[in-house]
Each structure stands twice: as C-alpha cells, then as structure tokens.
Amino acid sequence: MGDIVKDMTLVKSGVKALEVLGRHSFDLVLLDIDMPLLNGIDTAKHIRHSNTFDVLLSNQTIPIIAVTTNDSPEDKIAYIKAGMNGCISKPVSPLSVRQTLFRLLEHTPHTPL
C-alpha cells in the first residue's frame, strides 16, 4: 500500500482524532467504529459539524471511511447518516483498503497536497 499511502497518522480514540484534525489537514480518515471515549459514528458527526471540537475547515469535508465488523446494510446506512463516505469490513486486508480508496476517491473531488 506504500504506493497509495504517503503518510499516515494513528490515534487511539475518537477524541484524539478530533484533536489532531483540529491541527493538521488530511486527505482521508479511516475511522474505527468501536473506539474508546467517543465511537466512530459520534466522531464522524463531530468531524462534519461540531461546536465542541475545533476541526479544521479543510477536514470537515474529507472522505471518512468506517472500519468495522458491523457492516450490515442497516449499519452502513447509519454510517452514511453520520457523514461517512464508505465502509471497510474487518478483518481489513490491503486489497479491501485499496479497492475502497480507489472507488471512493474516483467519485470524490480531491486535490492532492
């Protein structure tokens, strides 16, 4: 995946993700649904529009992909309603990440850094 991922930032909670998104611009967020302190759905809602966390304006519209074992059609609808753009099922394989990224980014306006 090194040919499509130039740089990656890992955090351990939704709260930490929101703090980082308030300081640095990103092209994409892979968001685990079952994070501690703040789950993925609530984190996505805060990324899209939050009065509590100061997310950079440029990060409020980036693609968000749910990473989860909860990938039923009903779950996927909940992720979309929360502002997410796609879903990758666990266990995650490099191929599933690659396919989801290419499918999402070909339909999303994207300006490389």
From TrEMBL:
Keyword Phosphoprotein: yes
Gene3D superfamilies, per the entry: 3.40.50.2300
Transmembrane parts of this sequence: none
InterPro entries: CheY-like_superfamily, Sig_transdc_resp-reg_receiver, ST_Response_Regulator
Tagged with keyword Phosphoprotein: yes
Modified residues (4-aspartylphosphate): 32
Pfam families according to UniProt: Response_reg (PF00072)
Domain Response regulatory: 1-105
Protein keywords: Phosphoprotein
CDD domains reported in the protein's UniProt record: REC_hyHK_CKI1_RcsC-like
PANTHER family cross-referenced by the UniProt entry: TWO-COMPONENT RESPONSE REGULATOR, TWO-COMPONENT RESPONSE REGULATOR ARR22
Annotated protein name in UniProt: CheY-like superfamily
The species this protein was found in: Phycomyces blakesleeanus
